[in-house]
Amino acid sequence: MDPLPLHTIIWLVCWSFWLFPFCASSGSHLLPDKPLSVGSTITSDDGTFALGFFSLSSSSTKHYYVGIWYKNIPEDNFVWVANRAMPITDPSSATLAFTSGSNLALSDTKDTLLWTTNISAAGNSSSEATGGKAMLDNNGNFILQSSHGTIIWQSFDYPTDTLLPRMNLRITHKTHALQRLISWRSPQDPSPGNFSYGADPDEFRQRFIWNGSTPYMRGSIWNNNLVVGQYVESIKSTIYYRLQPIDDEVYASFGLPPPSVALLQMKIDYSGKIKTRVWNSNKSKWTDLWSGPNHECNKFGYCGPFGYCDNTLPIVTCKCLDGFEPNNKQDWTASRFSQGCHRMEALTCGQGDGFLNMSTMKVPSQFLYVKNRSLDECIAECTSNCSCTAFTYTNMSIDAINGDETRCLLWTRDLIDMEKLIGQGETLYIRVNGLSGTVYCFCFSACAVRYTPLFAGPVELQ
Ligand SMILES: *[C@@H]1O[C@H](CO)[C@@H](O)[C@H](O)[C@H]1NC(C)=O
Ligand SMILES: *[C@@H]1O[C@H](CO)[C@@H](O)[C@H](O)[C@H]1NC(C)=O
Ligand SMILES: *[C@@H]1O[C@H](CO)[C@@H](O)[C@H](O)[C@H]1NC(C)=O
Ligand SMILES: *[C@@H]1O[C@H](CO)[C@@H](O)[C@H](O)[C@H]1NC(C)=O
Ligand SMILES: *[C@@H]1O[C@H](CO)[C@@H](O)[C@H](O)[C@H]1NC(C)=O
Ligand SMILES: *[C@@H]1O[C@H](CO)[C@@H](O)[C@H](O)[C@H]1NC(C)=O
Ligand SMILES: *[C@@H]1O[C@H](CO)[C@@H](O)[C@H](O)[C@H]1NC(C)=O
Ligand SMILES: *[C@@H]1O[C@H](CO)[C@@H](O)[C@H](O)[C@H]1NC(C)=O
Ligand SMILES: *[C@@H]1O[C@H](CO)[C@@H](O)[C@H](O)[C@H]1NC(C)=O
């Protein structure tokens, strides 16, 4: 016989000793006749997450919020905030309660509505919710259920600054809006800050951190549509990153395969850094598995056109692509890189141009995706078009989104926002003048593409 699941054991214990405070206080449910007020919380069945009112102790004016946090992590533990832009200033009789329309609503002493689930906006009718209940599940998802148990609203559909395992972030916008993680304003202020993280609206394979509406950092381009893993020694498990079509949209998610119970999250912090991190319970601190940007040079376009950020150097800095030189040598030596680089030898097109390959690269932004091509066909596509300046190729071989297992990317303009990475990235083939005497790889079928299942991380949700 299988061992009893933990919640069953807790339930049995609670049943036998129903006055025991652990059982009597905070269940995982919020019921119509039991509103939540300051000081009380509900807790997920396994005790990982709590939902309730909180304030940030070090802030001068005390503002209160309703949010979800890791119950057993003492600090930097919030994963979701309901009323992030509408703080409670007078908590004395603020409540989170069911309304007559079966929504959940947060209101303060003056009966000001500060936040609501607004289930009709989500396309669900309030009649479905009548007699419903709300519960916090073991994944940290706050779920409003109808009396039949169907989900009519869930916090996972309304991300704030944190992506948790089993949450899906929408990265296309055919009929729904794109979703983004939006930073806090400061460590003490959960109101929406300047930085956000999500897919490029024009191209779901590419993700950005934005500072306002300006690109701040770009993730590498997804080169695998299914599952990619990143082994993490400290938790002896492999994190997966996944793109998944659900209904008419594509969603990104990540997580750890069972039986791992490590607490994992991806967060955009107030300073614009995106982090994938795991809770180290032995050291009682977060360990960053990946974070970025970590250098000025990792920021979007920092090295200018045809320049790249070389992360393999002891002092991470910008370099020109091979065969290129700085547009302004003085600026370049003074570490002003924005003007970028130019070719030393003009292209001749058709008269022996070749491709110079650079491995482990974060390939440039602004690509053209040519579908359904073999490697040879991808090379031919670039070779035959004089405006093609570079290409990269990946055979994704399995399970594709949009019915295509190939990824032939071409660049026809300036090459911007490249990085030389350590132990990840892919081979970029840059068109060069083959008559200039340098040794280049003339890439026709002779050139095998080394297949690197990228994924480095979270912007490796990146
Ligand atoms: C609920 O959503 C609808 C549609 O988006 C909007 O018009 C309405 O103002 C919202 N109600 C509340 C109370 O936020
Ligand atoms: C109802 O709510 C669920 C959960 O938030 C959501 O997935 C769904 O799209 C909503 N709309 C309809 C019409 O079911
Ligand atoms: C956010 O952007 C505004 C201008 O859009 C700027 O004044 C402010 O300093 C920025 N805040 C942070 C925290 O970067
Ligand atoms: C973000 O943009 C604002 C201007 O909109 C600028 O003042 C601020 O320095 C930028 N922050 C970073 C970290 O680049
Ligand atoms: C915590 O300590 C235990 C026992 O020493 C060890 O087995 C485990 O791997 C450690 N976990 C982490 C995340 O370091
Ligand atoms: C891909 O190209 C081949 C010919 O190169 C063609 O037969 C096939 O139908 C194409 N597939 C799609 C999905 O366009
Ligand atoms: C070359 O590429 C450019 C940019 O995508 C495109 O506009 C042009 O039609 C292409 N030329 C040929 C001959 O394919
Ligand atoms: C991709 O790789 C798979 C497995 O190696 C192979 O069967 C398939 O033909 C390749 N597809 C293309 C378009 O090169
Ligand atoms: C890259 O070019 C070198 C020669 O410069 C060649 O030996 C190597 O095989 C090429 N690598 C790939 C992946 O094409």
Blueprint (SSEs and pairs):
Blueprint: H1 6-16, H2 21-24, E1 29-30, E2 36-37, E3 41-43, E4 49-55, E5 64-70, E6 78-81, E7 95-98, E8 104-107, E9 113-116, H3 126-129, E10 133-136, E11 142-145, E12 151-154, E13 162-163, E14 169-170, E15 181-186, E16 189-200, E17 203-211, E18 214-218, E19 227-232, E20 237-246, E21 249-255, E22 264-268, E23 274-280, E24 285-292, E25 307-310, E26 317-320, E27 324-326, H4 329-333, E28 341-343, E29 354-362, E30 368-370, H5 375-383, E31 390-395, E32 406-411, E33 418-420, E34 426-432
Parallel strand pairs: 25-33
Antiparallel strand pairs: 1-10, 2-7, 3-4, 4-5, 5-6, 7-8, 8-9, 10-11, 11-12, 13-22, 14-21, 15-16, 16-17, 17-18, 19-20, 20-21, 22-23, 23-24, 25-26, 27-28, 29-33, 29-34, 30-32, 31-32, 31-34
The structure holds 2-acetamido-2-deoxy-beta-D-glucopyranose (9 copies).
One 2-acetamido-2-deoxy-beta-D-glucopyranose (NAG) binds next to loops.
Keywords: Disulfide bond, Receptor, Signal
Domain Bulb-type lectin: 27-157
EC number: 2.7.11.1
Descriptive terms for the model:
462 residues, mainly beta, Agglutinin, subunit A, 3 domains, 4-stranded antiparallel beta sheet, 5 helices, 7% helix, disordered C terminus, binds 2-acetamido-2-deoxy-beta-D-glucopyranose, S_locus_glycoprot_dom, disulfide bond, protein serine/threonine kinase activity
Overview of the molecule:
This protein is mainly beta. The protein folds into 3 domains: 1-158, Orthogonal Prism (Agglutinin, subunit A), CATH 2.90.10.10; 159-294, Agglutinin, subunit A; 297-456, no CATH class. The chain has 5 helices and 34 strands. It has helices at residues 6-16, 21-24, 126-129, 329-333, 375-383; strands spanning 29-30, 36-37, 41-43, 49-55, 64-70, 78-81, 95-98, 104-107, 113-116, 133-136, 142-145, 151-154, 162-163, 169-170, 181-186, 189-200, 203-211, 214-218, 227-232, 237-246, 249-255, 264-268, 274-280, 285-292, 307-310, 317-320, 324-326, 341-343, 354-362, 368-370, 390-395, 406-411, 418-420, 426-432. Strand 3 (41-43) and strand 4 form a beta hairpin. The two termini are 43 Å apart. Involved in sporophytic self-incompatibility system (the inability of flowering plants to achieve self-fertilization). It is a single-pass type I membrane protein. Keywords: Disulfide bond, Receptor, Signal. Residues 27-157 form the Bulb-type lectin domain. Pfam families: B_lectin (PF01453), PAN_2 (PF08276), S_locus_glycop (PF00954).
